[in-house]
Design a protein that fits this description.
Helices cover about 40% and strands about 25% of the residues. A hairpin with a 5-residue loop joins strand 11 and strand 12.
């Protein structure tokens, strides 16, 4: 039992223990806070620029600018270690190294950096001499992975891997190089007319790929670095841009003039394209208008339509850029099969295809010009872009333009060093789709190609002419995925029917009417790849049905006015026929008449029917059997005679006597007149009679008198 006298002592002991525990807690908390301050958090580091092509001289320098973001934490005791890794000899090793899979360290240099404040973003310049990196000898020619690693108090907090290239003392000849960039609105449904739909509005948005590419084109044109660039242009995209630049309507009917921001944006894009193509070192290719599913068209019996799509595309590019495209190189949007090559072959000297459309792969060194044997024993050239090099530009890695360009530098250097001056070696890059090139990438790529000593930039047409084709003959391999995605046979058949309907539509409408042109553009667009999608197929069929419906509407607008029987009072006369045109457009028609009862001087005539009006024309006819009632058939057709618009029958009566009856009547009248005259003369002369009557009378007298005498004697 604790007595009262002992409570103060116990209380003091408890207080002491509590104080000690509190002190321990505070110390632990402080240590934990201090430990948190010492915890290393990764920083962000990117490559802003780099010059890392060395000639093996002692005074060569690797120069780079790194963008370092300290994040929410202050940084102190910083070191940047620049490491050259073991040389790589092929693109696969280079790709692995760029992803961090390096084989070993060749040399390393450490540089002390100033402290970074919390939230600071610094552009850190770094210069390292070739001698420090042990790369001051041309005999070390090759491509070496180059890594920048940032350390904070001994812990790595950020790193970037790129490459440094050492050029040999006696370098081989530069490789011909060309880059093809597709400028086609493949992500939008093809448009027709002057209505700005949501698809085209998105294409012209400030942050769209097309607008970004236009800015890039502007930079490329301004600094004169577009050598080796070939633009693959879609005439349909250019046509829509031109239409919008002239002013457009919104779906609700509101009109926008050329001063509208989207109209100005469309005009700017066209101007930049046209300006760039005026340079002699820049060329263009024409995609099929759409771009179209040309293989499906050829397989569906519409080879003429496929050829028309290429021709229309070339015409649009020539008209809207002021410079003709390379018309002997065909760029299919989704590969080719043998039948399509046969259909398009007469109008092409070469086809630009991706590697996946070839059955036989090339050699270890990709060769951009190959030979393709055709079914008839002939041969065409196939231009094949380097898939791995092209993927450098289209790679979605978020590493920035400078790092991407250094990857391109390293990859092309490997191609060059491995080619050993082969005549069939070249660098051909192809970038499909507007979204494949981030903003600024096109200018950077053309700058890089022009600056690298191992590349000789040129247009695609020139490259195709100067590079020897590979000895190995390739075969086409149209993949099942492409075949399965084609526009189906039913769709192609409907498209063919609409194309047939367009011929009489054009014939019916005067040259001044642009309805046929509008429907023609619509049908060209209806063959485009986006309509492969089930979601968009209905929209494509709507274009087709609109064209067929337009012909039905024009045909139904013409009628023949019903009229009472026409009477001709002589064997010849004019038969009037009245036609009604209830359409809002003037219509050119051909009218034919025919009948078994009449012969016409001109049975066929052509005329223009005014809109919403009635017009009467006459046909001069000769009755074959006057006096009767005959039917005259009337056929109103389009001027080509392909489509019968309307037919009718008009009753025509001729009141003139038939010739045979008239002759018989006149003959009978003459006979009766002669007979009557003779009878009249006989009555006027007494005893007069015919000789026969007198003879008969004398005979009667003789017979009577003789008998009497004989009886009396």
């Amino acid at each position: 039992m604790i007595t009262r006298t002992r409570w103060p002592a116990v209380t003091a002991v408890i207080a002491l223990i509590a104080f000690v525990l509190l002190d321990i807690a505070l110390v632990g908390s402080a240590r934990q806070a201090h430990a948190q301050d010492d915890e290393v958090v990764d920083a962000d580091m990117a490559l802003a620029s780099i010059e890392a092509v060395l000639s093996g001289e002692e005074d060569d320098v690797v120069e780079a600018v790194l963008e370092i973001d300290s994040g929410p934490q202050a940084r102190s005791d910083l070191r940047l270690v620049t490491t050259v890794h073991t040389r790589v000899d092929d693109p696969a090793e280079m790709d692995a190294a760029l992803l961090g899979d390096t084989r070993g360290v060749y040399s390393s240099v450490s540089t002390q950096l100033d402290d970074l404040a919390s939230g600071e973003l610094r552009l850190q310049a770094i210069q390292v001499g070739a001698e420090e990196l042990d790369l001051d000898d041309p005999g070390l020619a090759g491509v070496y992975p180059l890594e920048f690693r940032l350390f904070q108090r001994g812990d790595a907090v950020a790193s970037i891997t790129t490459a440094v290239v050492v050029v040999p003392e006696d370098p081989p000849d530069p490789l011909p190089a060309s880059m093809v960039v597709s400028v086609a609105a493949e992500d939008t449904v093809p448009l027709t007319g002057d209505v700005l739909t949501s698809d085209m509005a998105a294409l012209l948005a400030p942050d769209s790929a097309l607008v970004a590419l236009a800015r890039d084109l502007d930079g490329t044109d301004a600094d004169g670095s577009a050598a080796g660039l070939t633009l693959a242009l879609d005439g349909r995209t250019l046509s829509d841009l031109s239409t919008i630049a002239d002013g457009y309507a919104l779906p609700d009917g509101q009109l926008r003039d050329p001063g509208d921001r989207r109209a100005r944006r469309a005009a700017t894009i066209l101007d930049r394209l046209a300006g760039l193509l005026q340079r002699p070192d820049v060329s263009s290719l024409s995609l099929p208008y759409g771009p179209a599913d040309v293989v499906a068209l050829v397989r569906g019996g519409e080879a003429d339509e496929a050829i028309r799509l290429f021709d229309t595309g070339r015409q649009a590019v020539r008209q809207l850029t002021g410079r003709p495209p390379l018309d002997d190189i065909v760029v299919p949007p989704d590969g080719l099969d043998a039948d399509t090559v046969a259909a398009l072959g007469p109008s092409a000297d070469a086809f630009l295809l991706e590697e996946r459309y070839l059955a036989l792969a090339g050699a270890d060194m990709p060769q951009p010009v190959r030979r393709l044997r055709t079914a008839d024993g002939g041969e065409v050239r196939i231009l094949v872009a380097d898939e791995s090099l092209s993927s450098v530009l289209g790679d979605p890695r978020d590493e920035g333009v400078a790092a991407t360009m250094q990857r391109l530098t390293a990859a092309t250097a490997l191609r060059w060093l491995g080619a050993e001056g082969a005549d069939e070696a070249a660098v051909l890059l192809q970038v499909d789709g507007l979204g494949a090139l981030p903003s600024g990438m096109l200018t950077a790529a053309t700058d890089t190609i022009a600056a690298l000593p191992w590349l000789r930039p040129m247009s695609l047409g020139t490259l195709a002419d100067v590079v020897e084709p590979s000895d190995r003959v390739v075969r086409l391999a149209y993949p099942p995925s492409s075949r399965a995605a084609e526009l189906d046979a039913e769709y192609i058949e409907a498209l063919g029917a609409a194309r047939s309907a367009l011929v009489p539509i054009r014939a019916l409408l005067p040259d001044s009417d642009d309805m046929a042109t509008t429907f023609g553009r619509s049908l060209l667009a209806a063959a485009a790849l986006p309509y492969r999608s089930l979601d968009e197929r209905a929209a494509g069929l709507s274009r087709i049905e609109d064209t067929i419906g337009a012909l039905d509407g024009l045909a139904g607008a013409v009628s023949v006015v019903e009229a009472p029987p026409v009477t001709l009072t002589s064997t010849t006369g004019e038969i009037p026929i009245s036609l009604v045109n209830s359409a809002d457009q003037a219509l050119d028609v051909r009218v034919r008449v025919g009948s078994t009862g009449f012969e016409f001087d001109e049975p066929i005539t052509q005329l223009t029917l005014p809109p919403n009006a009635t017009q009467t024309l006459t046909f001069r006819a000769t009755a074959l059997n006057p006096g009767g009632l005959s039917g005259v058939g009337v056929a109103v057709e389009d001027p080509t005679g392909r489509v019968l618009l309307v037919s009718s029958t008009i009753a025509v009566r001729s009141t003139a006597f038939p010739v045979v009856a008239l002759v018989a009547t006149i003959g009978a009248a003459l006979f009766l007149a002669v007979w009557g005259l003779r009878q009249t003369r006989r009555r006027r002369v007494p005893g007069a009679g015919s000789a026969d009557e007198r003879v008969d009378g004398q005979a009667d007298d003789q017979d009577g008198h003789g008998g009497l005498r004989e009886v009396g004697g």
